Amino acid sequence: xxxxxxxxxxxxxxxxxxxxxxxxxxxxxxxxxxxxxxxxxxxxxxxxxxxxxxxxxxxxxxxxxxxxxxxxxxxxxxxxxxxxxxxxxxxxxxxxxxxxxxxxxxxxxxxxxxxxxxxxxxxxxxxxxxxxxxxxxxxxxxxxxxxxxxxxxxxxxxxxxxxxxxxxxxxxxxxxxxxxxxxxxxxxxxxxxxxxxxxxxxxxxxxxxxxxxxxxxxxxxxxxxxxxxxxxxxxxxx
Length: 238
Known about the structure:
Layout: E1 3-7, E2 13-16, E3 20-24, E4 42-50, E5 55-61, E6 65-72, E7 74-79, E8 84-88, E9 91-96, E10 101-107, E11 114-121, E12 131-136, E13 146-151, E14 159-160, E15 166-172, E16 177-181, E17 187-195, E18 198-200, E19 203-205, E20 210-214, E21 218-223, E22 227-235
Parallel strand pairs: 13-14
Antiparallel strand pairs: 1-20, 2-3, 3-4, 4-11, 5-10, 6-9, 6-11, 7-8, 7-10, 9-12, 13-15, 15-22, 16-21, 17-20, 17-22, 18-19, 18-21
């Protein structure tokens, strides 16, 4: 029998700093919930809105795989490896912090907010050489299907990470039904509804709801409205 954990959007941690409005699915910064520290190797899922021209000043990370998925607007990235880049909807960004990096993130736009998901995955290797990458994917390739955006394999579609993890994005029309088969038998999948309403294994989810599912090998997904969905498959033990 599959195990599930449901995180409704309104149950998330919340911090409004004025320039930054952030919702935390898992414990982060000043939000701590001992029952919501991680889902397997998935450590952080932050839903961030940054005001025009504002952003995160230079700060350090280490031994974490950090993935950014822009939803609205343009996000400018700078790091200690010399990378300067702008990411927007359709782009996926990854940093392997490894032995240590510093970086900053700013809203490139002076007239509108930027919205993005920042996700941290615990790595399967410590102190690797820091790495930065980003890819631009064809958004039409996720219409009524699941587009792979992240994997452990540098030769696969999307970005890659130092962990046995697979992420997919889907943009589903109302009534679309899909099955997702787990890559590995002891994995879990955390589903996050970016927009719209879906049912996963008959559990109804709305805007910004999250559902973790494990001890099963398949998900059935039905779009109850037009919907955008992110699936994150990760090891439950590592």
